[in-house]
Each structure stands twice: as structure tokens, then as C-alpha cells.
Amino acid sequence: MANGDKDRPSWLRFSGIGIEFAAAVAGFTMVGWWVDRHWNCRPWGLLIGAVLGLTGGMYNMIRQALGAFKPPGDRGPRQPSSKP
């Protein structure tokens, strides 16, 4: 997560995760719909796009949600301290 995430309320971070999930599903489904219209292969493009969107969106949502609950020491490389 970005450096500014710790300053945001938790509901805002989690709503962003949900919006990213919905965007992934909608985006891949729209690409599948376009493939169906372009190559006339109904309904396979739409179905494959929806499945890819659900899979990718779920993967990203789970990855971000698990990262949100890790203790601060496990979130990445340590920053150098400003203490002498």
C-alpha cells in the first residue's frame, strides 16, 4: 500500500478495494463483449472476459486485504530511522 494509506480511514481503503474489484470485472467483461461483436463468437468472449475479470479482481482484492491486516513490521522494507 502507498505511504498515505495509513492516514486514511479503514473504510476508505476497503471501499477502494471493492471499487477496484468491480472495475476489473466490468473492464474484462466489456473487452469480452467487444471480442464477441468483432469476431462473432458469442457468448465465449463475454464468458471468458467475465471469468478473467472475476479471477483477477478476486486475486487483487484478497492480496490487498491480507496486506492491510499485516503488522507494520511485515509491510515491506524498513525505512532508515532518523535517530542518530
List keywords for this structure.
84 residues, 2 helices
The number of helical segments is 2
Give the C-alpha Rg.
18 Å
- The structure class reads mainly alpha
| Unreliably modeled segments | none
Oligomer: single chain
Question: N- to C-terminal separation?
Answer: 28 Å
- Average pLDDT figure: 84
Biggest β-sheet, characterized?
A: none
Helix content: 55-70%
- Share of β-strand residues: under 5%
Count of strand segments = 0
Query: What best-fitting shape do the alpha-carbon axes yield?
Result: elongated
Spell the H/E element sequence.
HH
Give a structural overview:
The chain has a domain of 56 residues. 65% of the residues lie in helices and 0% in strands. By secondary structure, the chain is mainly α. The longest helix is centred in the first third of the chain and has 30 residues. It is elongated and about 65 Å long. Helix 1 runs antiparallel to helix 2. The model has no long low-confidence stretch (mean pLDDT 84). The chain starts with 9 loop residues before the first helix and ends in a 16-residue tail after the last helix.
